[in-house]
Write a structure and sequence with these properties.
Low-confidence stretches: 1-92, 351-356
Protein name: RRM domain-containing protein
Strand order of the largest sheet: 2-3-1-6-5-4
Helix content: 10-25%
Shape: elongated
Radius of gyration: 22 Å
Pfam families: CEBP_ZZ (PF16366), RRM_7 (PF16367)
Subcellular location: Cytoplasm
Strand content: 15-25%
GO molecular function: RNA binding
Number of helices: 7
Structural class: alpha+beta
Order of helices and strands: HEHEHEHEEEEEHEEHEEEEHEE
Mean pLDDT: 76
Main location: cytoplasm
Distance between the termini: 62 Å
Length: about 350
C-alpha cells in the first residue's frame, strides 16, 4: 500500500520518499541564442544577478481557483532553479508534467477515500486540498482537490484517459449519490513555467517586476503577452513553482527590456489579467534583490553590507543602506517614500522607517 511511505503527506509536507531528479539546465528554447539561456539562469538565481532562494523558503500559497467551471473555486518572486526551472522541452529525465494535478467540479458528497479510489488506477497518489490538515475534513470543501502522484508517468496516463472538450480535460467520477460526473482535470506542463518573448535582449533584474496573485491556470506565455500588450518591452515572463512538485505557487515575474516599460508597470501597481476564463486584478511590485550594495555610498557607510532597503518611487529606484536612506529621504518631497524589503521567501514588503 502507498501508506507505507509514512504519515500522510500534505501540500506543506510533501513525501520525501518520492524523490526528485536534480535540476539540469534546459535543453534550450528554439531559435534562442546561448546568451538567452545564461540570462534565464541568472533570472533563476544561478549568479550574483539573482540570489538563490533555497535557504529562504516560505509557505506555498494556495488560492481557491475561480476560473474553471462554476463549481471550481500568492506569491514569490524570481526563483532559483530548484523552484522554477526553464523546461522548454522537458527536463533531462524526460519529465513533462508536475506530479500535482488539479481536479475540479467534484461531486459534493465524495470523500478523500473515494477520490483516491477513482484515480488509484493511474498510480500511487495522495489526495490533498488547501487547509486540509487544519479542517480535518474528509470532503473537499470547495469542490476541488489536488492529486499528488508518486510518479510523473501517472499524470500522462491520467491525461490519456481523459476526454477533451473545448481544450479542457474531463474524466468521469462517481460518488455515493452521483454516477459518472465529469470532473475537470488540469495538469501543469513544466514548459509553461517560462517564456522568452525577445531572446535578443539581456534580462536585467533591475527591470524586473514581481506579479502577485497570478491565477494558477495562467501560463508564462500568456502572462508575457498580457504585460507586453499593456506596457510593451517584455522580454521574459516566468511562473514561480514549488521545488518539490513543480506546481505554480500563484506568483510570477516579468522582465522588461527598457526602463520606460518597467516604470509604467510598477507605477500602475495593479494589473488586470484577462485571458479566456481568467479575469483577475493582481499586484505588481519591483523585484527586490538581496545582494545589492547601497547605490549612494557603495557600502562605505554600512561596513560593506548589502543594502536592506529599496525605494520603489520612480524618483529613486535605488538601493539604500539605513544611513543613506535617512539622509536622502529627509529631503523635501522624499520623506513619505516607503522602503521595500524582502518578506519570507522574498516577497517585496513595504516597511515603516524610523528616523535615526
Amino acid at each position: 500500500m502507498f501508506r507505507a511511505y509514512g504519515a500522510a503527506p500534505t501540500m506543506d509536507n510533501p513525501p520525501r520518499a518520492w524523490g526528485l531528479p536534480p535540476f539540469t539546465p534546459p535543453k534550450g528554447f528554439i531559435n534562442c541564442p546561448t546568451n538567452a539561456f545564461q540570462s534565464i539562469s541568472h533570472l533563476h538565481g544561478k549568479s550574483a544577478y539573482f540570489p538563490g532562494l533555497d535557504d529562504q523558503a516560505g509557505p506555498v500559497l494556495l488560492e481557491e481557483p475561480s476560473h474553471l467551471d462554476n463549481t471550481l473555486g500568492g506569491p514569490q518572486p524570481l526563483s532559483s532553479p530548484s523552484r522554477s526551472s526553464p523546461h522548454s522541452q522537458g527536463s533531462e529525465g524526460g519529465e513533462r508534467f508536475s506530479r500535482k494535478v488539479f481536479v475540479g467540479g467534484l461531486p459534493p458528497d465524495i470523500d478523500e477515500d473515494e477520490i483516491t479510489a477513482s484515480f488509484r488506477r493511474f498510480g500511487p497518489l495522495v489526495v490533498d486540498w488547501p487547509h486540509k490538515a487544519e479542517s480535518k475534513s474528509y470532503f473537499p470543501p470547495k469542490g476541488y482537490a489536488f492529486l499528488l502522484f508518486q510518479d510523473e508517468n501517472s499524470v500522462q496516463s491520467l491525461i490519456d484517459a481523459c476526454i477533451t472538450d473545448e481544450d479542457k480535460l474531463y474524466l468521469c467520477v462517481s460518488s455515493p449519490t452521483i454516477k459518472d460526473k465529469p470532473v475537470q482535470i488540469r495538469p501543469w506542463r513544466l514548459s509553461d513555467a517560462d517564456f522568452v518573448l525577445d531572446a535578443s535582449m539581456p534580462l536585467d533584474p533591475r527591470k524586473t517586476v514581481f506579479v502577485g496573485g497570478v491565477p494558477r491556470p495562467l501560463k508564462a506565455v500568456e502572462l508575457a503577452m498580457i504585460m507586453d500588450r499593456l506596457y510593451g518591452g517584455v522580454c521574459y515572463a516566468g511562473i514561480d513553482t514549488d521545488p518539490e512538485l513543480k506546481y505554480p505557487k500563484g506568483a510570477g515575474r516579468v522582465a522588461f527590456s527598457n526602463q520606460q516599460s518597467y516604470i509604467a508597470a510598477i507605477s500602475a501597481r495593479f494589473v488586470q489579467l484577462q485571458h479566456g476564463d481568467i479575469d483577475k486584478r493582481v499586484e505588481v511590485k519591483p523585484y527586490v534583490l538581496d545582494d545589492q550594495m547601497c547605490d549612494e555610498c557603495q557600502g562605505q557607510r554600512c561596513g560593506g553590507k548589502f543594502a536592506p532597503f529599496f525605494c520603489a518611487n520612480v524618483t529613486c529606484l535605488q538601493y539604500y543602506c539605513e544611513h543613506c536612506w535617512a539622509t536622502i529621504h529627509s529631503r523635501p518631497g522624499r520623506e513619505f517614500h516607503k522602503p521595500l524589503v524582502k518578506e519570507g521567501a522574498d516577497r517585496p514588503r513595504a516597511v515603516p522607517f524610523r528616523w535615526c
